[in-house]
Specification:
Blueprint: E1 33-34, H1 40-43, E2 74-89, E3 94-111, E4 116-137, E5 143-164, E6 169-190, E7 196-219, E8 224-234, E9 239-251, E10 257-270, E11 277-286, E12 290-299, E13 302-306, E14 309-313, E15 316-325, E16 340-349, E17 353-354, E18 357-358, E19 361-371, E20 382-393, E21 400-415
Antiparallel strand pairs: 1-4, 2-3, 2-21, 3-4, 4-5, 5-6, 6-7, 7-8, 7-9, 8-11, 9-10, 11-12, 12-15, 13-14, 15-16, 16-19, 17-18, 19-20, 20-21
């Protein structure tokens, strides 16, 4: 197969605008709504990656670059995500629904030798897109209005290399380059003032770090196997450039700022935008029949400029469990027995703490790998699908409850490329 087909709040009251990558009001804080860099395959198992070594030869694990012992083919993935968010707040009994669809993964991976595997990939890392208006009537009868607006996204390009040191033990390293621009502004308008006071922050990101991984897999005589895995992300070697401007102005009829007067302007740099991350995983399975595993992810908090103030994201962790089952990979008479069925559940203690309330998330996932017709176990090309049902936030303290249904679809094309043939 030589042809590739491309798929081409703040806290009280909010109004979300603009279709973009992700639509959560909580994206207003920090670097936006962070996307886990999972493939559709991993999403169907609640994001299990750390101790997940696929039993088949056509899939590459970027999250733990050490877990690629069985990759024997050139594998190309093209994936898309459809997000459907349903927001509710007790503030003015507000309800809103938002949708977005975007390209979420493009990758290629292939074996360099029996022990060395290599992969290249692109994914969006985070995004923000929000418009929020909060009004307040003062004691003197004047009305003050805060209009919050944010936009922008971060993307990542990854290169990963794995090395099988022994039949049981492997190491891997992934390089990550993050790039993009993030913009936030708080405009203060008062009914007894002619000018608008704007607090604006622009963050320009060019960041480079590494993800190291390790796996240990014990194989038993009855085709069962136990897998341990660990990863850590470290070594920010670049920086984020932040520009903060406090100014006054007014808009003309064409929505262009006029009579801009800068009160304060600061330029700062930081290299803690993408801090330490680590994960531990455990899995157990029967070769080409079933797998079950669990995983814990940890992410250290970081501080980022938000409309002129330091905003602290707290330490967070995520616990997940899931797996897959394959009824009979060799039953070509019954297609449904050749489908890989995936499942999982997760809980995440989020890094946001607003109005003395933690913003947490939990959900369940389902997925499947639908092999192309007549695809054999040696060339497992097919269609990957996954559904994630989840909840984030709360109605307490005038916050926002977010229910969501995320749909993911991906094509995985596998063939023997870049390898010498023994016979013509």
């Amino acid at each position: 197969m030589k042809h590739i087909f491309a798929l081409s709040f703040i806290t009280a009251g909010f109004f979300l605008n603009a279709q973009n990558i992700g639509n959560s009001p909580y994206a207003a804080y920090g670097i936006g709504d962070v996307k886990y860099d999972n493939t559709v395959e991993n999403t169907g198992m609640a994001g299990l990656t750390t101790a997940y070594i696929t039993d088949f030869n056509s899939s590459f694990n970027f999250m733990n670059p050490a877990a690629n012992e069985n990759l024997q083919l050139t594998a190309i993935k093209v994936e898309a995500t459809n997000e459907n968010n349903f927001f509710r707040s007790d503030y003015n009994d507000y309800k809103v629904t938002k949708h977005s669809t975007y390209l979420s993964n493009i990758s290629i991976a292939f074996p360099l030798s029996q022990k060395v595997k290599f992969g290249l990939g692109y994914q969006p890392y985070s995004s923000k897109s929000y418009d929020v208006v909060v009004s307040q009537t003062e004691a003197d009868g004047s009305v003050k209005l805060n209009a919050y607006h944010g936009e922008g996204s971060l993307n990542t390009v990854q290169a990963a290399l794995s090395y099988q040191i022994s039949p049981a033990f492997a190491l891997g390293l992934r390089t990550n380059f993050y790039f993009g621009n993030l913009y936030d502004i708080d405009e203060l308008v008062s009914s007894n003032a002619e000018l608008i006071n704007g607090y604006e922050t622009r963050n320009r990101v060019n960041n480079f770090n590494f993800t190291a991984g390790a796996t240990y897999q014990k194989k038993f005589e009855n085709d069962r196997k136990l897998t341990l895995g660990a990863t850590t992300t470290f070594g920010n070697s670049s920086k984020m450039e932040s520009t903060y401007i406090n100014s006054t102005y007014f808009y003309n009829s064409n929505e262009v700022k006029n009579y801009v007067s800068i009160i304060e302007q600061t330029n700062t740099t930081a290299n803690n935008l993408l801090p330490l991350e680590a994960s531990l995983g455990l899995g157990f399975g029967h070769n080409q029949r079933w797998f079950i595993g669990s995983q814990v992810n940890y992410r250290r908090g970081e501080t980022i400029q938000f409309v002129g103030q330091d905003f602290l994201n707290k330490d967070s962790y995520r616990v997940a469990a899931g797996g897959w089952i394959l009824p009979n990979v060799n039953n070509f008479r019954n297609y449904f027995e050749r489908i890989i069925y995936r499942y999982g559940a997760f809980y995440e203690k989020g890094n946001l703490h607003i109005n003395d309330t933690d913003i947490n998330r939990f959900g369940v996932t389902f997925g499947a790998t639908l092999p192309f017709k007549n695809t054999s176990i040696n060339r497992m090309s097919g269609l990957d699908v996954a559904v994630e049902l989840g909840k984030r936030g709360t109605l307490n303290n005038n916050l926002v409850n977010q229910n969501y249904i995320n749909l993911k679809v991906g094509f995985n094309f596998a063939d023997r490329w870049f390898q010498k043939r023994l016979y013509n």
